[in-house]
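Amino acid chain
________________
===
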Amino acid sequence: MLQASSFAHPARPRTIAYWLFFVAALVLAIVVVGGITRLTESGLSITQWKPITGIIPPLTDAQWQAEFANYRKIPQYAALNQGMTLAGFKAIFFWEYLHRFLGRIIGVAFALPLVWFAIRRRIPRGYLPRLIALLALLGLQGTFGWLMVRSGLSARTEVAPGWLATHLLTALFTFAGMIWTALDLLALDRDRSARPARLTGIAAIAGVVLFMQLYYGALMAGLRAGLVSDSWPLMNGSFFPGETQPRPFFAALTEDPAIVHFIHRWWAWVLVAALVVLARAVKGSNRAATRAIHIAFGTQILLGIATVMSDVNITLAALHQLTGALLVAATAWGMHATGRVAR
């Protein structure tokens, strides 16, 4: 009877959910490595995009010299790393190579099992389009990553902040989508009549507020805005940054490091308010999600303050980015929980 029942219902919601959680963990890892890559100014060390052959790093001295020669042709080398040794180049090459390697691993870890699940008819009805959309987002993420790198190879000494923000936000949106879909599948595994959670008004507001904070966090990294001030809560002795660059108002909101820093540090409290409301909305139905949201935003705020006051210590900054991604996961969990209650 067990075998007959298994044959009659080939879909495996729980298995697919666990697979999505695994790929989401890989996305979490690449977000952290990407942050370290930015902090160490390593992102432009590989000046070409070779999707297949690029998986093999330089193995001979001649290959290393060729890669180093390519790097010495771009403006960043002349402006920031003039006189760098080959050993120094290998150090920054490592982080960019690891970042791209993880990107390839994520693509394979998603695409191949998806094909297998589809052929074996293990995907529950209605979920294949969503999984294909997540795969498309991963491909788009890789495209944005290369466009980001290319933006810093000619006239700039770093990647364009806008492309960096697009690259990071696409990764985090895909990450949240994997978690949301996995939670839907776990609910379906418990109850085969369960329907996907819907997006509620409270969840949408929390998501928009979080998106804004993540966007300005990405701009902080792209503009090195964390270095504007190493004090908190005041910025260089005043509430509002005193030294800003003359720009049109709307341009200053995304291009002036001092203003970007100011918005990021104070919009965080708007996010806290939104997340407290979200957590209270699901407290009765999912206490674990409520606790996760509170722990994540509390830890994130402390790490953000510590990062600023340490003059952007790399370890603290990387932990800040890691916790930011975990905050996305906790928020997605809470948003999903409100949708389950609504159903």
In short: The radius of gyration is 22 Å. The chain is about 70% helix and 0% strand. The chain has a mean pLDDT of 92.
